[in-house]
Design brief:
With 199 residues, the chain is of the alpha+beta class. It has 2 domains: 109 residues, Hypothetical protein yqbg (Orthogonal Bundle), CATH 1.10.3230; 79 residues, no CATH class. It is built from 4 helices and 10 strands, in the order βααβββββββααββ. The radius of gyration is 20 Å and the shape is elongated. It comes from Pukyongiella litopenaei. This is Gene transfer agent protein. InterPro entries: Phage_CHP, Phage_HK97_gp6-like.
């Protein structure tokens, strides 16, 4: 099983000006854009960390997911959330020949935590021995920064500012995230069920 991010968040979708204001960086000088590439890097790192912590894709982009067998041919849980569309399903045989699956034969069962690819009837297409299936996905909470929930946007800015301020620090512990960020993300974290107890 392999998940590939096929499109990256475009630079234009990153809130660089808002991040500069958050950091209270000076403006009106001849070198206003000097740190833009550095700031974009911290924003991308913060977005990746927030997505890892919440299990949710923030800004819409395309993913390609390849697997060698269905866990359940009656419905395969998808690896990212929220999924906006299943753009393609392609069966690949052992020799590499590709056969697109007719879109009318499958559907997306939307769910905020566990979206599922389901057949319209019967089962998902069989995967030949030595073959695989590739599923194209469009996933994300919003098409652009302005469409994100305000608390998630604030969490990204706070975390990016933390990275910026402590960019030379090497002694922080594994998984270190400021309390303000973790509290903003808490309601977005995926629920886990263990022995009948929600965690």
């Amino acid at each position: 099983m392999m998940l590939i991010e096929e499109t990256a968040i475009p630079d234009a979708a990153l809130p660089v000006a808002r991040f500069k204001a958050h950091l209270r960086l000076g403006t009106g000088f001849g070198e206003d854009g000097l740190q833009d590439d550095v700031l974009k890097g911290f924003l991308r790192a913060a977005i990746a960390a927030v997505e890892a912590r919440t299990g949710k894709v923030l800004i819409e982009r395309a993913f390609g997911w390849t697997l060698n067998h269905w866990r359940d041919a009656a419905g395969q849980r998808l690896p990212v959330t929220p999924v906006q569309a299943v753009t393609a399903v392609t069966v690949v045989d052992g020799g590499g020949a590709e056969t697109p699956v007719v879109p009318a034969t499958f559907r997306l069962e939307r769910d905020a935590e566990r979206p599922v690819l389901r057949p319209v009837s019967g089962h998902l297409p069989s995967i030949p021995p030595g073959g695989s299936v590739r599923v194209g996905l469009l996933a994300g909470m919003a098409a652009d920064w302005g469409g994100l929930p305000a608390d998630l946007g604030q969490a990204v800015l706070l975390l990016a500012a933390h990275y910026y301020e402590y960019r030379d620090e090497t002694a922080l512990g594994y998984g270190c995230m400021p309390f303000g960020v973790t509290s903003l993300l808490q309601r977005y974290r995926p629920l886990r069920v263990s022995v009948g107890v929600l965690q």
